[in-house]
């Protein structure tokens, strides 16, 4: 394996198990890596840090967890007992042009990046990243459905709401198992593609009538697409798995009051297939890292 990251200093902050496997892959590419908030072993090119200041010192690129931080700046670090907060006071620890890479950046993180004077790149919505992540997301969602419903996926009426990157992968996998796949979409071109791929196309207006047939509903749309009036039309033993980013697209309070199982399940790649998810991230990050370092070095020469 070519060590394309040789001589580059990376910092990995927190995250789930996918970041543990990501570190292994980035180390193979030659990077020197400082780690905070993850249970990894120290080795020649992997150093464990005890503070954010130590982790950020003399780094070129900071890789944050896919969810980043909360609105108080608390780092997403479920594998660590300590709590770490990213604040503007860390500016003194950052020298030169530094790249921050994150899955999703909330308003706090965007403002923090401006305060720290760092470049911030969100990768979760990049097409190739989202398509890679759709594989473990779809498999994980189907696994959850299998555990929650009293029938087989084969022969079930499975509704997929949204025909984006995850929706397309999910529909294909469900059809492969033998489900009768309904796909709800808004755009005429998506409805045409749904028909072409032998799924059952459903407009959002038709969803109000068709949803009574659903045994399982998978939502991928990050907006309220399953309000109380639609939930009332579902079978009582139907199951909803919401893959959209928090807060999802389901009225969860209404679902609870109606006795319908509804689960918000973002971040499945890091939960159900962390090794695969880490390897997929390692396909994406080197290009971003090298591009940043190349531009930075060019500016330094200027």
From TrEMBL:
Pfam families noted in UniProt: 2-Hacid_dh_C, DpaA_N
InterPro entries: D-isomer_DH_NAD-bd, Dipicolinic_acid_synth_A, DpaA_N, NAD(P)-bd_dom_sf
Domain D-isomer specific 2-hydroxyacid dehydrogenase NAD-binding: residue ranges: 146-244
UniProt-listed SUPFAM superfamilies: NAD(P)-binding Rossmann-fold domains
Superkingdom of source: Bacteria
Domain Dipicolinate synthase subunit A N-terminal: 10-124
A GO term for molecular function: NAD binding
Gene3D superfamilies: NAD(P)-binding Rossmann-like Domain (3.40.50.720)
Protein name: Dipicolinate synthase, A subunit
